[in-house]
Amino acid sequence: MRRWVCVLLGLCTLCVQGQTPLSRYSVATALSHTNFIDSIAIEWDNQQIYIPVQMGGKTYRFLFDTGSAQAVVYADTPIEGCRPAGHILSHDAIGAIDTVQMVTLPPMKMGSITFSDCQATLQRRAVKGRNFDGIVGFDIINRGLNAKIDVRNRLLILTDAKNYFDREQGFDVRYKLKYHVPYLIISPFGRFTEEALFDTGSRRFYSMNKQSFDLMATKEGPQVETQVEGRSVGRHAIGNFGAEPLGEVVFLNLSSLKLGDFTFSDVHTVTTQGGSHLGASLLDYGVLTVNPKKKRIRFQPYQQTTVIPVGNRQTEIAFVSERGMPCVGLVWERGVPYRQGFREGDIITEIDGRPVMSFAHFVGWPFLIGREYLFKVKDRQGRQREIRWVRLP
Questions:
Q1: Is-contact 147 289, C-beta < 8 A?
Q2: Binned average pLDDT, 10 residues per bin, the chain of 393 residues
Q3: Distances (CA, A) of 77 to 49, 86, 123, 132, 200
Q4: Residues 6+ apart with CB under 8 A from 110
């Protein structure tokens, strides 16, 4: 059961779209000063970017999520000084839509820059127990700020200088905005291309929309099957309004994934009912700059090459919430968890004789690497069984 936590905790993508008489998406935020180049120290923790944000004399830990159209704050960690600002439509990672409350944040300081009158949505957490207080979204870039994301040096560089990063080397890809977040054209196989959201809110390197995969199989023919490692019925993506529906999931090992003129090889991934996206794991391989005026993302690989092997592990098991309890949403038949006895639909009821009270309780369980755990599960027919599992790195 390798690295299942990153599957379980995949953050939803938040996109918003105004519609009368609802509030409208806005980037009309005042900055404390202009003509600046600011280097903001960031955390790079388990393929996620965290930024220290100061409001009202307190420091908060915010996730930097390019798949979120604007800032997000949570009802369970209230921030003093927020003012109601109406309601707006919200689209989550798996396409569900709902109306959510908008707020205007108090002056928000990142690095040396203070953002005033910044809007945010007030959300409930898709997964409780997460160790951050809110989200900084793509709206900070949509305001016209050029950005450089450098996780190796733990820096987010922001500047209002229009062409500041233009002389740097790299591989350029144009993006277009859909629901105010950036979509890139990529090629997962042969001449087939698709749109993928650049989404630092997701830890995955790449996830492929199932309908996009089916279209690729139709256009590219039988050779696509050489990229398939298995098929199953399940679900793994968790949006802000719940888990994706049950459906066929294809396990893929892509020989190449092209981002403009750059190629990533040996990429393991699974299909999803939600949209295709490139996640934050991309940043393990290079620096990214974003130019919102030219709608361009430039990838600067750490290695002087045009091809990088990814060699990531295949997803072997994923958990979702079912009626508030942890449920095996997806299990790969060639993986260790399947051989140990885990099956889709199993509800985790006990670990080492201790009852599991909820999905949030399970997410926060203090698993130790190398230790064996005894799981008690209940299948869809109500039958119980025990499974022994050793936590691997």
A1: yes
A2: 38 39 69 94 96 96 94 90 84 66 94 93 75 93 96 97 93 95 97 97 95 97 96 85 85 98 98 94 97 97 96 94 94 94 97 95 90 96 94 73
A3: 19, 20, 10, 9, 22
A4: 40, 51, 52, 53, 54, 136, 140, 158
**CA 155/CA 9 separation, integer angstroms:** 24
Measure the CA–CA gap between 196 and 201, rounded to whole angstroms: 14
Q: Are strands 146-150 and 354-355 parallel, antiparallel or unpaired?
A: unpaired
Cis amide prior to 182 (ω within 30 degrees): no
pTM of the model: 0.89
What radius of gyration, in Å, describes the C-alpha atoms of the chain? 21
Which residues partner with 242 through β-bridges? 239
pLDDT the model gives residue 95: 60
Neighbours of 49 (CB within 10 A): 22
Distances (CA, A) of 92 to 67, 145, 247, 283, 290: 10, 25, 18, 23, 23
| Tokens (6 digits) for 253 | 């090992």
Tell me which residue of 190, 131, 329 sits closest to 337, measured CA to CA: 329
Under a CB-based contact definition with an 8 Å cutoff, are residues 279 and 203 in contact?
yes
Amino acid identity, position 141:
I
